[in-house]
Each structure stands twice: as structure tokens, then as C-alpha cells.
Amino acid sequence: MFRRLKHCHNVEDLRLLAKQRLPGPIFHYIDGAADDEVTYRRNTAAYADCDLVPNVLAGVAEVDMSVTVMGQKLKMPLFCSPTALQRLFHHDGERAVARAAEKFGTMFGVSALGTVTLAEIGQMISTPKLFQFYFHKDRGLNDAMVQRAKAAGFNALALTVDTITGGNRERDLYTGFTSPPRLTLKSLLSFGLHPGWALNYFLREPFELAELKDFVQQGSNVAVSIGDYFAGMLDQTMNWSDAEALRAQWGGPFCLKGIMSVADAKKAVAIGADAIMVSNHGGRQLDGSRAPFDQIAEIADAVGDQIDIICDGGIRRGTHVLKALAAGAKACSGGRMYLYALAGAGQPGVERALGNLRREIERDMRLLGVKNVSELNRDMLRYR
To answer: Of the listed 28, 91, 194, 281, which one is catalytic?
Structure first.
């Protein structure tokens, strides 16, 4: 079935649109995860194990879905989590996502493995911007990224802490996915079957990792898998002292991305972090780990009054966002939910994705009988 954007009413529709447009290795890089992909599936399935209990006769003609996270006011409780390599999926890449996020008044997370410079993103939008930091062995590179994010006016920095080595992403092994794409007979055939993508990739500005190309060739000029990049380039000695020093160096709102346990959440509070993203990297690192949603309540009980908790992963519906907020999250974020849309239709696709989810959140707040997200609470949840 040939899909068009106007017929995409949910994340799965946008996923199929992306599959239609992208060469196989590129699509499966977005769509895949580690090992048997149990955790990837569980990230979304976890929401189905929790039921909502609505209240009625609540007078909900107007609803306010805004939240404040890391000191940033967002018009909706869902933002675009940082993701790598976006110009592989659509030639506009981060530019398209930035403009869409600004239109919806939400935050845009930009990856250290991004393909548009922080300076350009900073000049492009005035809405909240989060820079996602990978801790490299090259300390000069680390310092440069912090300074560039400051100069570009980014509002917050998130240190990813769950990539001490690369996950076993077997789909990438089967398809031969690398960044940049390695040209083989198999990949060229896939590119040829998707001429729109191929023409944009080969005839527009050269693909590169915008903030890394001056320091490392891997990923921009030398083809490498993401797993090998993590294992070879990132500092496997990174520890809590390094995280605390980075927080002090940054000097602004600071987040740890990849926290999954109460013990680590307490340590995040102890080093002065402003927020944690409860995340398992979309199931792309440790397969068999818990779903973020399943950890929200106990982490919120332990530190929810001391730090902003963000539920990152598995979001496919507005009800997923509301369940996470009711369990104790301050906001939610997601990657695939907008990456499929970016791949399928660029900025209009991302706007479609955010618009679909925003309408679901607003509608479902009314159906739950809440005027403000602050009214969401665990009395509205029942676990199977």
C-alpha cells in the first residue's frame, strides 16, 4: 500500500511511510535495537499493562498541557529526544526537527552525533534547546563541544551515561549499516530502489558529523558502525566524578540521560543534576533491561521532589505520556516517534507526528477529567 502523509494518523503509520521511503539499511538503523529486541518492544508494551481510570463531570472545556522542565517552559509535556545522524534520514535533518519543535513550543534535543552545527540550530530557533553530550576519550573534543553549545545558546546539557560500549545491534550487522553508508553492491541496489533518497543524499551537501568532523574522521569520512564508534571513541573510564565535573563546567541546567535505577537517581541528585532521563536508549544498548515507564514510580518516590524526571522511550500515544506523568514523570521524550516522520516527509512529517500526539494528549486529558497535567496522579492508574 502506497502511503501519503495525510493518511498518517499515528506513529505506526509514519513508521510505514519511512519504510516506504528509506533504503533498507537506513530504515533498520532507526527501527532496530539490541540482541533480540525484547526491551525495544517492552518499552511500548509496558504502557499497555497499566490502565487509566478517568473522572467525569469535571468541566474540562479548557486544558493546559504545559510543563516546566530543567527551567524551560514547554507548551506540551513531550519533546524531541536527541538522536544521531538525522541527515541520513532526510536531507534537512535537524533543521526540519528544530523548526517543527519550535512551531509546537517544545524542546529539541540535538545529539553530539548530529549532522547540522549547533551554531546553525542556535540561530534558527528561539525555543528550548538541549545538547546531548557523549563523553569522548579526546578531552579537547569534549571541551570544544561544551563551548560550542554555550556559544550557540543551548539551554541545557544532557550527558548520555548508558553508552560505555556499543549495544549488539544485529539488524545493523545483517544490513551492513555504517555512517556514512558504505558503498557495496547490496547497498547500491537498495539506494537504486529508493531514488528520491539517493538523489538527495548524493547531490546535496556532503554528509558529516558536524561537531565531530574537525576531531575525528570516523562517522564523517571513514565509515563506521555506531557500535564500533561507541566502543572505540567514547571514554569507558567515565565515572560519577567526571559527570560532576562536566556539570560544573557547563554551569547551566544539567541532565543525565540513561538513568534506570533508584540508586543512580539518588547519585544524580547528589552531584547536583537538575534532571534525569529515565531511558534505556530505546532498547539499543542492554537488551533485557526494564522499560523506562516501569521505573518511573519508584524513582519518583525516591527523588521526585528533588529532581526533574523525564520518561524517555516507547512513546507511541498520548495516553503513554499521560500515564508516565501520572506515575511521577515531569515530562516525556521520544526519538523514533519523530524520526519515522522525518524520514517519511521531512518537516511536514515531524509536524504531523507532534500534531497527532498533541491532539491525543489534549483529547485524553479531557476524557480523563483533568484541566492541567499537574492534576494527573496515581489514583488514575491501575497496573495489571
So the answer is: 281
Rg (alpha carbons) of the chain, rounded to whole number: 20
Q: How many domains does the chain have?
A: 1
Distance CA 379, CA 359 (A): 24
Q: What is the β-pairing status of strands 50-52 and 381-383?
A: antiparallel
- What is the signed CA dihedral for 202, 205, 210, 216, rounded to 10 degrees? 50
Is 7 labeled as catalytic in the residue annotation?
Answer: no
Residues spanned by the domain of 159: 5-371
Q: Which residue is it, cell 558503498?
A: 183
Three-state SS at 131: strand
Kindly state whether residue 317 falls inside one of the protein's structural domains.
yes
pLDDT digits (tens, 9 = 90+) for 316-365: 999 999 999 999 999 999 999 999 999 999 999 999 999 999 999 999 99
Pair 121, 128: CB distance under 8 Å:
no
Q: What is the CATH number of the domain that holds 358?
A: 3.20.20.70
pTM of the model: 0.95
DSSP 3-state assignment of 214?
A: coil
Q: What DSSP string runs through 258-301?
A: EE-SHHHHHHHHHTT-SEEEE--GGGTSSTTPPPHHHHHHHHHH
> From the CB of residue 180, how many other CB atoms can be counted at a distance below 10 Å?
18
Q: How many other CB atoms are there within 10 angstroms of residue 56's CB atom?
A: 8
172 vs 374: CA distance, rounded Å: 41
| The residue type at 119 | A
